[in-house]
Design a protein that fits this description.
The protein has helices at 13-18, 21-34, 150-168, 185-195, 203-210, 218-229, 236-240, 324-327, 385-396, and strands at 5-7, 53-56, 70-71, 98-101, 107-112, 116-120, 129-132, 144-147, 246-255, 259-266, 278-286, 300-306, 316-317, 332-339, 350-359, 369-379. It is of the alpha+beta class. The chain has 2 domains: 1-122 and 150-241, no CATH class; 242-401, Jelly Rolls (Sandwich). Strands 9-16-11-14-13 form a 5-stranded antiparallel β-sheet. Strand 5 (107-112) and strand 6 form a beta hairpin. Helix 2 (21-34) packs across helix 5 (203-210) and helix 5 crosses helix 6. It is globular and about 65 Å long.
Length: 401
């Protein structure tokens, strides 16, 4: 989208070029926030059940050729590029859910009216993602060009989904989900695409710019920030690769409304009674039927919560993430917990987690709703989290005679 942005803080293009990186960033973010009604997500990307992918201000261009009269508006890659559509979704659901590289979009001068007007420039050889393209001059079959935007980011998301699926089906690589029922393929992949996403900075700046001013109104501030960063930027490698200090467990099932499943997850002994930093991430994904015309639209909702206080793991809900109320509105539930308290375990060193299904707009007929759940326990130091959880799972899976 090439809607212009108005920067009232600047009168001339020269003053914008000469401004510090922080001044540029703040001015552009304020302009994006002021024009968010013009930059909403386009159909069908606002779909409740689909993952919406935003364009991250990031690429891997090494040599940026050209750029005369153009300016990079952001000095880091944790923000969306300026052409990416902003949420929220229907009934203020978190949209886009995740952001993947869409090119470090540069901006150019457009005009002067009530302030400096800027717009995104064409990619040329300055920024973007390399993609196959027709060679109109020499007919080369290996020709590529730089492209940008949310379409590019969505292509990367599709590639990431293939990587996740390949890892799930890799029986020789040790996957325990190689026999997964095909009816759960899509929902498990959806869950894992979001599972590693998190806010990685700039959320405080976005809260300051998007408001409200009062820090007591955290839910509104976090909701407004979610327009720009969703659940965050995922690290797909963390989902499909093992690490000594990190273990990810994946489950799936089907629930009727007003029913629940309980999971008993063994905790690693190395995190008991120590002050090493640790984190817990819980993600639940499902596909809900919808009722057009109904106020709630979404037929069912799912949530996950521990049956015992998480202080038993030495963690509490991370502040740098969407507010709990916002997380519960869409088609994916995703929350982070972190801490470093030295605490004794309860329940024989298990995390008791309940996933439940509740009616929202209500199903015309009681039909089981398929879901996937992912849980990651991660130590901030080199502790044997993976091996200890794996060993406890082996022990608990034995059947008594």
């Amino acid at each position: 989208m090439k809607y212009p942005l108005t920067l009232p803080e600047f009168d001339t293009w020269t003053s914008f070029e000469e401004a510090s990186a922080e001044e540029k960033k703040r001015a552009v973010l304020r302009a994006l926030n002021a024009s968010k009604h013009e930059r909403t997500i386009l159909s069908p990307a606002e779909s409740l059940n689909a993952l919406t992918i935003g364009g991250q201000h990031h690429d891997s261009v090494v040599t940026r050729l050209g750029g005369h009269g153009l300016v990079d508006p952001f000095d880091d890659n944790t923000l969306p590029n300026i052409s990416s559509g902003l949420g929220l979704g229907h009934r203020r659901t978190i949209k886009p859910e995740i952001y993947l590289p869409g090119g470090r979009e540069y901006v150019r001068f457009r005009g002067n009216r009530d302030g400096l007007e800027i717009e995104s420039s064409s990619t040329q050889r300055l920024y973007g993602l390399a993609a196959a393209a027709p060679d109109t001059s020499q007919g080369r079959l290996n020709y590529s060009a730089l492209i940008n935007g949310t379409s590019s980011a969505t292509a990367l998301a599709t590639h990431a989904a293939h990587q996740v699926f390949a890892a799930l089906m890799d029986r020789e690589g040790g996957s325990l989900l190689a026999d997964l029922d095909p009816q759960y393929y899509a929902i498990v992949v959806k869950c894992l695409l979001v599972h590693s996403a998190r806010w990685n900075g700039n959320n405080e700046l976005l809260m300051e710019i998007c408001g409200p001013e009062s820090k007591r109104r955290f839910v509104e501030r976090a909701e407004n920030s979610s327009r720009f960063i969703g659940f965050g930027v995922p690290n797909i490698a963390q989902v499909i690769e093992c690490a000594e200090n990190r273990a990810t467990l994946v489950g799936h099932g089907a629930l009727l409304p007003n029913n629940a499943h309980r999971y008993r997850i063994p905790l690693p002994g190395c995190l008991e009674h120590v002050t090493d930093p640790r984190s817990l991430t819980v993600t639940v994904a499902w596909f809900s039927s919808v009722r057009p015309g109904h106020q709630n639209y979404r037929c069912v909702r799912m949530e996950a919560a521990p049956l015992h206080p998480l202080q038993g793991l030495g963690v509490e809900r991370r502040s740098s993430q969407p507010a709990d109320a916002s997380v519960k509105r869409g088609g994916i539930f995703h929350e982070h917990f972190e801490g470093e308290a030295a605490v004794p375990y309860i329940d024989d060193g298990h995390l008791a987690l309940q996933v439940w299904c509740k009616e929202d707009a209500g199903l015309p007929q009681p039909t089981p709703v398929r879901y996937a759940v992912a849980v990651t326990i991660h130590a901030g130091t080199a502790l044997p989290v993976y091996d200890q959880i794996q060993e406890r799972l082996r022990v608990t899976s034995r059947v008594a005679n």
